[in-house]
Amino acid sequence: MKIITILVPEEVVLASIADPLYMFTAANELLKKSGKKPEFLVQLAGLQKEVKLNGGLFSIHTQYLLDEVKKTDLVIVPALSGEMKSAVELNKDFIPWIIEQYKSGSEVASLCVGAFLLASTGLLDGKQCSTHWLYANEFKNTFPEIKLVHDKVITSQNGLYSSGGANSYWSLLLYLVEKYTDRETAIQASKFFLLDIALTSQSPFIMFSGQKDHEDDTVKKAQEYIETNYNDRITVDELCEQFGVGRRTFERRFKKATSNSIVEYVHRVKIEAAKKQLETGRKNVNEVMYDIGYTDTKAFRDVFKKITGMSPVDYRSKFNREAV
Fold it and tell me: Is 186 exposed, middle or buried (0-12, 13-18, 19+ CB in 10 A)?
């Protein structure tokens, strides 16, 4: 039987504790119905016996204090809430315990922005990690030694797992059920919870808002210009000339400030505009393409799919009510 320890930190998202508890408990019931033995012993552990949330509206009672858990097979690091730096600092006493458990053979999985706490252990250095796309820039700036793949729903390396934003952690939970049991049980769980077992990317759900948390005013003005004139054909040379900066210097400054090259930024702004039109408008794909300044159908389709993981037609079908 696998022992799964769900951590209960301060400033935690309640659902990210309740949901894995429900998943592994339900998996046990599905196994029993199939004539198999339950596979999971799930427990809650924290630094105190009771953790109050949302100003005391909710409270979670842990079964064990952290130092009482000597051995576990899997550690679940749930999603934190609020300002990430403060939340990690508030829960820093979990860090040495997570490291000790991993070195003793336990696996560790972070859900959504629980990745900030897992990353703070140093265990992910040099490895891939996913988290909520909204926190991508903050994560990259805080942990430059980790390769953030925020478009992925799941990462798995050397017994360390992470998931994308919000409800995408259900995909990681399914993945772990399959890993510890079998494909049949994972499929049964996906049907029970009405989950898409094949979900692998959170790219279609990412809303791009350019990284402006920097001090380079010239780059900010260039970002604002791109966002205002996204329907025009914008070249790097034109931007350099307009803002009076040499190309090589401007490209270096832009990349440092925004984590995107100038060309990437232009494409992302244009595609974000296209997504909004495809979600709510009545225009067909070609009309939207021309509206945002593309004239080559193949180029538009390739860039759109690279950024969103879907073709423009599939995206419109998925998110536009009228198209459905």
Answer: buried
Say what the pTM is: 0.70
Dihedral sign from CA coordinates of 178, 114, 96, 4: negative
Walk me through the domains of the chain, giving residue ranges and CATH numbers. Answer: 2-204 (3.40.50.880), 217-319 (1.10.10.60)
Residue by residue, DSSP assigns 139-208 as: HHHH-TTSEE-TTBSEEEETTEEEE-SGGGHHHHHHHHHHHHS-HHHHHHHHHHTT--TT--B-GGG---
Residue 241, phi-psi category: left (phi > 0), alpha (psi -120 to 50), beta (remainder): alpha
State both tokens at 226. Answer: 């791109």
Taking alpha carbons only, the member of 239, 304, 234, 237 closest to residue 268 is 304
55-109 pLDDT, tens digit each: 888 899 999 999 999 999 999 999 999 999 999 999 999 999 999 999 999 999 9
